[in-house]
Amino acid sequence: MAENRRRSFLALAGFAGVLMLAATGVSWADAVPSGWTCVGTCGSLGANGVVTLSPTGNSSYQYVSTSNAPSGVGALPTGGLGSETNGSTLATTVFSAAAGTPLNFYFNYVTSDGAGFADYAWAELFTSGGSPFALLFTARTETSGSIVPGMGLPSPTATLTPSSVPIIPGGPNWSALDGSSGDCYLGVGNGCGYTGWVLSNYTIPTTGNYYLEVGVVNWSDENFDSGLALDGVTVGGVPITPTGPTPEPSSIILLGSAVTGLLAAARRRRFAH
């Protein structure tokens, strides 16, 4: 009898943790890196659907998505098109760089939308005071040909590898797209898919303090979401992306409190018998 009670108690503890994780959306790989600034829908994931781990060998990557993102966010700061609707941005911490320092990172643009509603993503280097300094890449939904740089958007200054980036077609399965994961507007061949990991390399020409910001935005409507995965941001070969994101402290507190409460209730029932 005592062993049965012990097993019930441990099962309740595990169930409590699962319930709280489901209720709060907490995941051990969902936290935005400490010090980075997210506006909208951002997070971190491991290999997920069509988005594999990047060539860096890191165990996770960061992302921005238009899914459940706020209106008026995500448009390209320099050379926006108009008709942007909702989106998200993610900015790194400020870093110092001497003239001639390389800034490298990998990106992977993923979209469930078609070229008639040409969503896009971008990366831009800013001065620490918030002034745009260099546009590093754009990617925009098209039915065929290279989607980097993005149609109708300003030309980026970074070197991209590969330099020509056609969409890998299909309804992309990727949890960052939420309800749009696996969808493809008007079917395969109309622009939905993903780029795979692309390397962006830029040499900072002027000594100063900077931060990198990426964004993704819906264009003309808010349906069929798009997203951007980002990984391996290095300045002079030194990573500014942490190797392992951790849960938000408040989430840990909520989880601990909930489990503690449920375990206490179990103890009371146990001793009542």
Report on this model:
Strand 7 and strand 8 form a beta hairpin. The strands form two sheets. Strands 2, 3, 6, 9, 10, 11, 12, 14 and 15 form a nine-stranded antiparallel beta sheet that branches. Strands 1, 4, 5, 7, 8 and 13 form a six-stranded antiparallel beta sheet that branches. The chain has two domains: 1-26 and 247-273; 34-246, Jelly Rolls (Sandwich). With 273 residues, the protein is α+β, with helices and mostly antiparallel strands. The chain is globular, with a radius of gyration of 21 Å. Mean pLDDT is 81; it is low at 1-29 and 242-273. The protein has helices spanning 2-24, 249-272; strands spanning 37-39, 41-45, 61-65, 84-91, 95-97, 101-111, 120-127, 132-140, 159-161, 168-169, 193-194, 198-204, 208-219, 226-235, 238-239. The longest helix is centred in the last third of the chain and has 24 residues, at 249-272. Helix 1 (2-24) packs antiparallel against helix 2 (249-272).
